[in-house]
Amino acid sequence: MINFNVPPTTGEEINFIKDAIALGKICGDGKYTHMCSEWIREKTGSAGVLLTTSCTHATELAAILCDIKAGDEIIMPSYTFVSTADAFVLRGAKAVFVDIRPDTMNIDENMIESAITEKTKAIVPVHYAGVSCEMDKIMELAKKYHLFVIEDAAQGMLSSYKGQQLGTIGDIGCYSFHETKNYSMGEGGAILLKDGEMLEEAEIIREKGTNRSKFFRGQIDKYTWVAAGSSYLPSELNAAYLWAQLLKADEIYDNRMKSWNRYYEELSGLAEAGYIELPHVPGECMHNGHMFYIKAKDLEERTRLISYLKENEVMSVFHYIPLHTAPAGKKYGEFRGEDRYTTVESERLARLPLYYGLSEQDQGQVIHTIKKFYKKK
Ligand SMILES: *Cc1c(COP(=O)(O)O)cnc(C)c1O
Fold it and tell me: Ligand 1 test: best mutation among 51, 78, 126, 152, most atoms within 8 Å of CB?
């Protein structure tokens, strides 16, 4: 069976984990946490980066930093992972879902303005498949209506928009290092911050509401409880795993892009013949090969395609069930405007196996099986 995903490993992870153990520090904010966050900061040009226990937690931290409260409204796509909404509804806010663009599956920047009310506090663009949302327009709206922009860049590390790294364009950016993402630590994430004051506040919330980070830097002589906080810092063991991945970031990136480009080239015949649609990457976006999907004609054809691939030893999967159709989405959210594309486009989409180290032979089999499926028609 060709798996849909295989968690990335470089072989070096175990050595760094052993080193972390030998250093006698396996809780958070040790050598590996600092090396990883510094690496991300330099690579992305972000002002401040903190590793977190997940992207979900990075987004929760963002919601606290933006002082999201009961009654606030947060604009986001319905076609996203539950965490995008969870982080805000946990604080009593309402998720306001806006339609997506069919070409990128990202929030439709032209549908946002009519969803803004007095209660709107933030826009949360989700960069699906590591392809950027139309950030110029989103930032312009945020400025006009004084809203925060929190980028859900869970899939977007090392992607860019007009030369700017995803996660560094809005006020806050959130990354994921879950095992399904390009770079991993099992479970983990990062929060990227532009503003120095917010960074200081984030350090405190992440450390149970204490100023312990300042204490460790020698800026104060004892640490104390200064705010309401939580524990969002990952263990050094996880950070050591991530460090091995970051050292090989270029190789992982190139490898994923090679697979992505091969899918695109070899499936373009089917697209030109009108059988399937391929992902669209706007000219101002550089993506990171996070995901390759194809779109079948409709739900019925996609279901048959996924079954056919499975019968032929290929695991392909569909993706998000639009949040506004889910029980919690109905309770905590509202779709504003018309659902022209969210539901129908999500029903057509199937993701193909794509991971660091996918062999040429296996990928060839995936492509061959898809072609066979459409030849039968
Ligand atoms: C993976 C993902 C998340 C959640 O990341 P975790 O690190 O598992 O919390 C959130 N949003 C999107 C768009 C994702 O793809």
Answer: 152
Residues 110 and 166 both lie in one domain: yes
Structural domains counted in the chain = 2
- In this structure, the answer to whether residues 302 and 324 fall within a common structural domain is yes
The burial of 298, by beta-carbon neighbours within 10 Å (0-12 exposed, 13-18 middle, 19 or more buried), is given as exposed
Q: Exposure of 331 by Cβ count < 10 A (0-12 exposed, 13-18 middle, 19+ buried)?
A: exposed
Of ligand 1's listed atoms, the one at least distance from the Cα of 57 is 9
- Each of the 377 residues of the chain gets a pLDDT tens digit; together they read 999 999 999 999 999 999 999 999 899 999 999 999 999 999 999 999 999 999 999 999 999 999 999 999 999 999 999 999 999 999 999 999 999 999 999 999 999 999 999 999 999 999 999 999 999 999 999 999 999 999 999 999 999 999 999 999 999 999 999 999 999 999 999 999 999 999 999 999 999 999 998 988 889 888 899 999 999 999 999 999 999 999 999 999 999 999 999 999 999 999 999 999 999 999 999 999 999 999 999 999 999 999 999 999 999 999 999 999 999 999 999 999 999 999 999 999 999 999 999 999 999 999 999 999 999 76
Ramachandran angles phi, psi of 253, nearest 5°: -60, -50
Residue at 285 is within a domain: yes
Range(s) of the domain holding residue 30: 13-246
CA–CA dist 227, 110 (Å, integer): 39
The residues, any chain, with a CB within 8 Å of residue 215's CB and separated by 6 or more, are 221, 222, 223
56 lines ligand 1 (CB under 6 A): yes
Please tell me what DSSP assigns to residue 41.
Answer: H
Residue where one domain finishes, among candidates 216, 246, 276? 246
Q: Is 100 in the pocket of ligand 1 (CB under 6 A)?
A: no
